[in-house]
Amino acid sequence: MRLVVLGGGESGVGTAILGKKKGYEVFVSDFGKIKENYKEVLNHNAIAWEEETHTESLILNADVVMKSPGIPDKSPIVKKLIENGIKVISEIEFAAPFTKAITIGITGSNGKTTTTMLTYHLLKSAGLNVGLGGNIGKSFAWQVADNDFDYYVLELSSFQLDGIINYKPHIAIITNISPDHLDRYDYKYENYIDSKFRITMNQTEEDYLIYDAEDEAIANWLTKNKTKATLIPFSLSPIFTEGAFIKDNKMEVKMMNHEEFSMETESIALEGKHNMKNAMAATSVAKLMQIRNATIRESLSNFQGVEHRLEKVLKIQNVQYINDSKATNVNASFFALDSMTTPTVWIVGGVDKGNDYNELMSLVHEKVKGIICLGVDNKKIIDAFGNVVDVMVEVDNMIDAVRMAQHMAEKGDTVLLSPACASFDLFENYEDRGRQFKQAVYNL
């Protein structure tokens, strides 16, 4: 069996290692450059590879192709593979049959990293033999090759879900859905929503789907479509006989297995309404897995949060600097602005993915005193907010952005990096953008 891996990054190299271990003839092809550390791993494992090209004769003879999530379906080589009837799948689909572990799959436009990390923290604190992977940390396939976990908590992007055929998580979470990555879905929101719901398409009556009952896109999909999974809702207001909700400043979770849990919301380490939802989703998993309430309470109260997600960096001259570089869409920036309690200087911009900034208008009116546009093309942001804020400037690097923000901010203000856009115009990725922001703040 010949396995061709498109993309020589974390998921590609992980898949190659697992494929080699399982007896496949493996070839890795990357249209860009492969990082040196990954080349070393491939060479050490005697796996053939190429970079900066796709040699068709070496690719179109594959029995199965694993496509890395960053490669769009529209790319010429992928189109050719599909025309030739060659199966193109994601890393998750390839790796899942090689492990007996139970998987918890988490997707959503926002909150999925925090929910994934918190779920992992809850299970790990309970002493379970659990791995963390998917769109985060070490490649799932690589871990399946090297480790023997009983459980995996997987963060799954829509791109990873697009490439599944038979994979199903035992417990699935959809945190929320808002327009994102529409450039990859023919600018059709319904295609993106369907993509997210692929997480439940193979689930059976023995599996669970945990979801935000207040999310319009999720609610609409569930009224028009069926899933066999047992539904477990969470929300800030309604009270369910089964599910999670907030009542009298307490988070309550009630399960059909008579498992119940409650905790004062102020004792939960994460702040903000959206994080209460993330905590409810993760706690629902813990209760399904019958983890002790005392363990859950302790884990929720000591969870440190996620780097680049509303991360408090420093307070300088009584101005709080916050790194929310992971906000790569409008909805994420909505949560960030919504949780601001002081006048805010907002650093925004990057690669626009079909953003509609109108939904931020009332929050910008109410909370934002100045905007710093950090991107190659800021036209849409300037058109949207040019008449809304007193001061608006454009910069093309992080050092200038932070210096300008310091200049605009007064005592008691907040400087918020929450770009609402992808980062690929000026940075390697959102982590690089967040680290540059933190470094620039440390250097003030």
TrEMBL record:
<dbReference type="InterPro" id="IPR036565">
    <property type="entry name" value="Mur-like_cat_sf"/>
</dbReference>
<dbReference type="InterPro" id="IPR036615">
    <property type="entry name" value="Mur_ligase_C_dom_sf"/>
</dbReference>
<feature type="domain" description="Mur ligase central">
    <location>
        <begin position="106"/>
        <end position="285"/>
    </location>
</feature>
<dbReference type="InterPro" id="IPR013221">
    <property type="entry name" value="Mur_ligase_cen"/>
</dbReference>
<dbReference type="GO" id="GO:0008764">
    <property type="term" value="F:UDP-N-acetylmuramoylalanine-D-glutamate ligase activity"/>
</dbReference>
<keyword id="KW-0547">Nucleotide-binding</keyword>
<dbReference type="InterPro" id="IPR004101">
    <property type="entry name" value="Mur_ligase_C"/>
</dbReference>
<keyword id="KW-0131">Cell cycle</keyword>
<keyword id="KW-0133">Cell shape</keyword>
<feature type="binding site">
    <location>
        <begin position="108"/>
        <end position="114"/>
    </location>
    <ligand>
        <name>ATP</name>
    </ligand>
</feature>
<keyword id="KW-0961">Cell wall biogenesis/degradation</keyword>
<comment type="similarity">
    <text>Belongs to the MurCDEF family.</text>
</comment>
<keyword id="KW-0963">Cytoplasm</keyword>
<dbReference type="Pfam" id="PF02875">
    <property type="entry name" value="Mur_ligase_C"/>
</dbReference>
<keyword id="KW-0573">Peptidoglycan synthesis</keyword>
<comment type="function">
    <text>Cell wall formation. Catalyzes the addition of glutamate to the nucleotide precursor UDP-N-acetylmuramoyl-L-alanine (UMA).</text>
</comment>
<dbReference type="Pfam" id="PF21377">
    <property type="entry name" value="MurD_N"/>
</dbReference>
<keyword id="KW-0132">Cell division</keyword>
<dbReference type="InterPro" id="IPR005762">
    <property type="entry name" value="MurD"/>
</dbReference>
<dbReference type="Pfam" id="PF08245">
    <property type="entry name" value="Mur_ligase_M"/>
</dbReference>
<protein>
    <recommendedName>
        <fullName>UDP-N-acetylmuramoylalanine--D-glutamate ligase</fullName>
        <ecNumber>6.3.2.9</ecNumber>
    </recommendedName>
</protein>
<comment type="pathway">
    <text>Cell wall biogenesis; peptidoglycan biosynthesis.</text>
</comment>
<feature type="domain" description="Mur ligase C-terminal">
    <location>
        <begin position="308"/>
        <end position="421"/>
    </location>
</feature>
<keyword id="KW-0067">ATP-binding</keyword>
<keyword id="KW-0436">Ligase</keyword>
